[in-house]
Design brief:
Double-stranded beta-helix; 8-stranded mixed sheet; 6 helices; 16 strands; globular
Length: about 270
């Protein structure tokens, strides 16, 4: 079977067909996938049948995997896999994160070395709702007026975490997370392209007045997820969607809780943004 790639949006996303990720991908095909990932920021693989080991194995080709701080939602026997689910156990206790990411964000930007890539696999999907939105931050940067590129250049933002953005964190887990400064504009280490780097975890802009910080954030919150930057993914069972946290903001949408949405996520370690 020949591998093909089809663009999903002018700025972000490609669907990769002709690849069975339940088996190791040959080096030539993997090199093409890796290059497309860095350029398109989101790749979609439909119709996959992935065991946790196969999911982990493919993800690990891109780098070492993280073990999420929310250890209570790890897949049994596979700590690299975070469960996103509204299923409950025999005692009625949630087995996974139910409402994770219902805001524009990039994964764990509140750490010194935020996640490079996230790999989300759909096990059970509701008949409607629960889509994921992906906003290209390459496109968001490119579309900035010249005066805003100049104004934002060299500025850093403080990324933090609180009970509003992390309601599933215990007090002990929250205590482990300290605020961290990252550049508002980061350079992608593989392509050299510039991208905005923000999202819900940004608390304030550093080294400017509170008034200017509020002004900048007011502008960016309207700009970084502009409709023309966004690809909406409508999930199907067997989808594996991978996204580059260095150039993407994403946003989960709600769904009717009478239906099951059960997914597995792996995450590749990243580097300090520059």
């Amino acid at each position: 079977m020949t591998m093909t790639m089809t663009n999903l949006h002018d700025h972000v996303g490609a669907e990769v067909a002709g690849v069975n990720l339940s088996h190791p991908v040959d080096d030539t095909s993997f090199a093409d996938i890796e290059q497309a990932f860095y350029e398109k920021s989101v790749l979609v693989f439909r119709g996959q049948d992935l065991s946790p080991d196969a999911h982990i194995g493919f993800s690990r080709r891109f780098g070492p995997l993280e073990v999420h701080i929310l250890h209570q939602y790890q897949l049994d026997g596979h700590p690299e896999v975070l469960v996103l689910s509204n299923k409950t156990d025999a005692e009625g206790k949630a087995i996974g994160l139910v409402d994770a990411g219902r805001y524009w964000h990039t994964d764990v930007s509140f750490t010194e070395t935020p996640s490079m890539g996230s790999f989300l696999y759909a096990v059970e999907i509701p008949p409607k709702g629960g889509d994921t939105l992906f906003a290209s931050q390459f496109a968001a940067y490119d579309a900035l007026p010249k005066e805003w590129k100049s104004r934002l250049g060299g500025l850093k933002a403080l990324h933090g975490l609180n009970k509003t953005t992390a309601p599933k964190f215990t007090d002990a887990q929250l205590a482990l997370v300290k605020g961290v400064a990252h550049p508002l504009i980061r350079t992608h280490p593989k392509t050299g392209r510039r991208a905005l780097y923000g999202g819900v975890f940004v608390d304030k802009i550093l080294d400017v007045s509170d008034t200017e910080s509020d002004d900048i954030l007011s502008f960016l919150r309207k700009h970084w997820a502009r409709e023309d930057f966004v690809y909406r993914h409508r999930w199907q069972v067997g989808d594996l969607v991978m996204w580059d946290n260095r150039s993407i903001l994403h946003h989960a949408t709600p769904f009717d809780g009478q239906y099951i949405r059960h997914m597995h996520r792996t995450t590749v370690e990243g580097e300090k943004p520059v």
